[in-house]
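The data are quoted verbatim here:
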Amino acid sequence: MGIEDYGGGMNPESDVLVVTTNDVPGYRVERVIGEVFGLTVRSRHLGSQIGAGLKSMIGGELKGLTKTLVETRNQAMDRLIEQARARGGNAVLMFRFDVTEASDVGTEVCAYGTACVIVPQQQ
């Protein structure tokens, strides 16, 4: 199984494996490149804030905000992968998300991890 066949955390369109673990079974870290991150800040529009306010009074999932957060996380992760690839990496280990409110204007999402070059272990 090559890295392109490894299903854990790899986007089918990506040549960069992203995992939350320290290592990848069957592979060894050949080179550590260093920290990489993808950052995006999204503002909330008035309609979603009003809708979320009303929904919070009666309970239930805030589907519009959920959709926005998923899109925001995906954008941050895409930027992380671009940065790892640009620096010569084919994997990001110890992947994490950090989400912060940005001065009541929006939400900052940062995807970060350690870019590495991994190769199959010799049997």
Remarks:
- The CA atoms of residues 92 and 115 lie 4 Å apart.
- The two ends are 13 Å apart (CA to CA).
- The chain is about 30% helix and 35% strand.
- Strands lie at 17-18, 27-43, 91-102, 106-120.
